[in-house]
Design a protein that fits this description.
This protein is an alpha+beta fold. It folds into 4 domains: 104 residues; 83 residues, Orthogonal Bundle (Arc Repressor Mutant, subunit A), CATH 1.10.10; 63 residues, Winged helix-like DNA-binding domain superfamily/Winged helix DNA-binding domain (Arc Repressor Mutant, subunit A, Orthogonal Bundle), CATH 1.10.10.10; 107 residues, no CATH class. Helices cover 54% and strands 14% of the residues. It contains 16 helices and 12 strands. The strands form 4 sheets. A 3-stranded antiparallel β-sheet has the order 1-3-2. Strand 5 and strand 6 form a beta hairpin. Helix 2 packs across helix 4. The longest helix has 20 residues. The radius of gyration is 25 Å and the shape is globular. The two termini are 43 Å apart.
Length: 378
């Protein structure tokens, strides 16, 4: 997490995760970076709000949004996300949008919201606080939920890292004598947006794997060489966040297989952004390794983003042009073997250069077109 975002998260109250505050941040990010008078900024947001479809916000919400606009602008000015130039203001639209996306990510997890509140209180100089203090900023959470997350997850994790965060009676205490950067690094680390390709912990390792191919809990435990109970805890948390979903068509006995949830991307990407990133990489590597200048449309027939991400991962290992035929065939076999083996070869048909899965609803396409792979690899 960039330093300025960490500072903003420590300065902004956790109720900035509410719909009203996030709407204002989004509206500010859409205004452009031309200098505007302060009063004009307020007017632009109100005008935008009143043009929203009538069913989106009730009058009570509209009044609530309008009421807090000046406070939000003032807070963002203190963070220099809105720069002052006399009577005019310059809006740092890109940074404000990045901040909104970070808040969106934090909001998806109860644990991250609780950590944000603890970090905010700590950042404000409140080193002793109660569950009631946390509830003040998270009224939709329950007292028991907060205590459970703090007592069973956050505090044990802090203590395992030799950070002084304890429960004393009904209060929680962060030792203000310890180095500020240690607490900051730990708490910011929990709230940080996952970074595809830069795994830093078990949860991100799991997401990296499920982003490319379906795996069961036991599969993940074997590959990552950790106890299955650890995997189960992480999977439960990721399911609660809706970062992962059951993989359709992939079952084996009592095992359930998982994939990342494209409708609630752990990497905070839209489906279109994810697809474009993958296709961009595939076209670049085809040109670099094979001298093939392929149009992006060559890959757009692949509708499933998991398949594209899987191809990106495998294409990183494509042999160079000078490699022998055998190595290229090994690559092609490996490209599909892990997926096919999980489904079961008896449930696979190949027709019109595509793989199909046999299901109780008939044949379903696996969305792995082969012509370009045969052209590149054989």
């Amino acid at each position: 997490m960039e330093e300025w975002i960490a500072r903003a998260i420590g300065t902004l109250e956790p109720y900035y995760s509410s719909e009203e505050y996030r709407y204002i941040l989004h509206s500010l990010s859409m205004l452009g970076e031309d200098r505007l008078e302060r009063s004009r900024i307020n007017e632009e947001i109100q005008s935008r709000l009143l043009q929203e479809p009538g069913h989106k916000y009730q009058q009570k919400q509209i009044d609530s949004i309008i009421k807090v606009i000046p406070d939000v602008i003032e807070k963002l000015e203190s963070l220099r996300l809105i720069e002052r130039y006399g009577d005019s203001r310059s809006i740092q639209t890109k940074k404000i949008d990045d901040l909104r996306k970070q808040i969106d990510f934090i909001k998806k997890s109860m644990e991250r919201m609780i950590v944000w509140t603890c970090y905010y209180l700590y950042h404000q100089g409140k080193y002793v606080f109660s569950v009631q203090d946390i509830l003040e900023y998270n009224p939709k959470l329950g007292k028991d939920q907060i205590e459970k997350v703090l007592d069973k997850d956050i505090i044990p994790e802090c203590q395992s890292k030799e950070l002084k965060f304890n429960r004393e009676g009904n209060n929680y205490v962060i030792d203000k004598g310890q180095k500020n950067n240690l607490i900051k690094k730990y708490m910011i680390g929990i709230m940080e947006t996952h970074s595809r390709g830069h795994s830093q912990d078990l949860e991100e390792d799991i997401l990296e794997m499920l982003d490319k191919s379906p795996y069961s809990n036991s599969d993940l435990a074997k590959v990552l060489d950790v106890d299955q109970s650890q995997i189960s805890r992480k999977i439960t948390r990721l399911r609660e966040e809706e970062s992962i979903i059951p993989a359709k068509f992939f079952t084996s006995g009592w095992h359930r297989y998982w994939l990342t949830n494209c409708d609630n991307c752990p990497w905070n990407l839209t489906k279109e952004e994810c697809k474009n990133d993958s296709i961009k990489y595939l076209t670049e590597i085809c040109k670099e390794k094979y001298g093939l200048d392929l149009d992006p449309s060559y890959f757009e027939q692949i509708e499933d983003n998991h398949t594209l991400v899987h191809l990106v991962d495998m294409f990183k290992e494509i042999p160079n042009q000078g490699s022998i035929e055998k190595e290229k065939r090994v690559f092609l076999n490996r490209l599909f073997d892990d997926i096919i083996n999980k489904i079961g070869r008896e449930n696979i048909e190949v027709d019109d250069h595509r793989y199909w899965i046999k299901t109780n609803k008939g044949k379903q396409p696996l969305d792995l077109p082969l012509p370009y792979l045969l052209e590149l690899c054989l």
